[in-house]
Structure formats: C-alpha cells, structure tokens
Amino acid sequence: MRSVDIASRVGLALLAAGLAGCATVSEPLKSLQQAVVAPLASAIAPATAASTAASVASPPPMKAEPSTPVSPAVQRAYDEARRSLRAGRVDEAEKAFRALAQANPELGGPHANLGIIYRQSGKLPEAVAELERAVQANPREPAYFNQLGVTHRQNGQFTKAREAYEQAIALDANHAAAHLNLGILHDLYLGDARRALELYDRYLALSPGGDAVVTKWVAEIKNRKPQQAMLVRKEKE
Fold first, then answer.
1. Lowest-pLDDT range of 10-14, 200-204, 216-220
2. Which of 205, 175, 237 lies closest to 6, judged by CA?
3. Of 96, 209, 221, 229, which is the most exposed, with the fewest CB atoms less than 10 Å away?
4. Contact yes or no for 87/109 (Cβ under 8 A)
5. Cα Rg for the chain, rounded, in angstroms?
6. 188 Cβ partners below 8 Å, 6+ apart?
7. Nearest in space to 162 (alpha carbons), one of 172, 148, 175
C-alpha cells in the first residue's frame, strides 16, 4: 500500500515559499522575502501518490498580503537558520527560527520552517499551529498550504488536508506536489479513485521528467476492479 503523501518531492529541493512573498519550489530560497521551508532531507518521504487534474473548489477570495520589507540582519539570521537545518542541526535551527518568529511574527517563513521541524519530530499539534501562523502571515503562498495539508493528513484531519491542498492549487494551478498529495488523499483516505486518477494525471503532466512510481499507481487504479476497491476501503476502516 502506498504510504504517505509527498511531504514534498518538491521539497527536497527546498521549498521556496515566501517569507512574505510568493512561492516556488525546488529552488533555494534567496531572500527572506522568498523565504521558507527547507525540509530535512532525511524526513522527506518518497513520493507515493499520484495525481489527477480535476476541478478544485474555489476558495474564498484572499486578501492580498502587503510586501513586507526585511532588514539585512533578519535576512542573515534566516539564512543562517536554514543552513543549520540543511546541515541537520535541528535544535539550533529551531531555536533560530523561533527567535525570528517571535521578533517578526508577520513573516511566514520562520513559522513554516518551525512547522516542518515539529511535524518531523512528531509534534503534530505544534506543527499545525505554526503552519497556520504561516498561512495567516502570507495567505498567498501555496507551499505553506501544501505543508499544512501534509500535516493535517498526518494528524488524521482529512477534510482540512483536502481544503489546504485545494487552496495551494487554487493559488498555483501548477503546484505539482499539491496535486500529488491531494491525489494520495483521495486515493488512500477518501476512497475516490476517479478523482485520485485525475490528480495523478495532472501531477504527471506537471512533471517533465516523469515519475515511474506514480505512473504505476495510475495503472493500478485503471486496472482496479470494483471489488478490489471495496477491499481497500474496508481495510482502511
């Protein structure tokens, strides 16, 4: 059975989300304005789910976040915290991100990184709280919503996870990880294979290099018999 969602296949590459700005994934963060999430490599799960494209419910309009100027000192502190996280000095990184979050609560990056650190430590309530602070600080950053969705899913909050992934996709229709994670959610936790297939297909369309694992999942779903689907759902109960 495929295990988890992709905390970020993307992520390994370092989720670049905005400390206050927009997000892209898979490129190192350059500034606090783009700041964020640098998942620990060791904690990033291999991709497991697939994706489909399907219509995503439109979230309510979000208020635009004003650009937040960041001082050079804050930027340096943030960069140093990210280096610590990349190097596996988690305690040091956590301490640094916490200090930044306390001094600059309006910046989403420190909160998002704290959320990932807590999630990877199994502290799911704390992780949810920090990631919710991140999306409040910057509600236009899809990477924050994707990370929040992963955390809700791990916490068994499937409806909230779906909403978070859908919000990420609404903000960025080409956010591959969010499509994949939403596909996994529908496939393994919501029992909607058709929707999962759509999302897996969309994820593959957004992945120029392909993904052999997800391609296999797509084939499995297409070959799945109704009785088999029922068995899978029953096992999850």
1. 10-14
2. 175
3. 209
4. no
5. 17
6. 1, 2, 49, 236
7. 148
What does the alpha-carbon distance between residue 100 and residue 155 come to, in Å, rounded to a whole number? Answer: 26
**DSSP classification of residue 44:** P
CB of 36 closer than 8 Å to CB of 23: yes
Give the rounded distance of the alpha carbon of 155 from its chain centre.
14
pLDDT digits (tens, 9 = 90+) for 34-85: 344 434 333 222 223 333 222 223 333 233 344 667 899 999 999 999 999 9
Q: Which structure tokens are listed for 231?
A: 């068995």
Backbone dihedral region of 101: left (phi > 0), alpha (psi from -120 to 50 degrees) or beta?
A: alpha
**Residue reference for tokens 């999306």:** 135
For the CA atoms of 179, 169, 9, 140, the dihedral, rounded to the nearest 10 degrees, stands at -170
Q: Which two tokens stand for residue 30?
A: 């350059």
Burial class (CB in 10 A: 0-12, 13-18, 19+), 121: middle
CA atoms of 172 and 59, how far apart (whole Å): 12
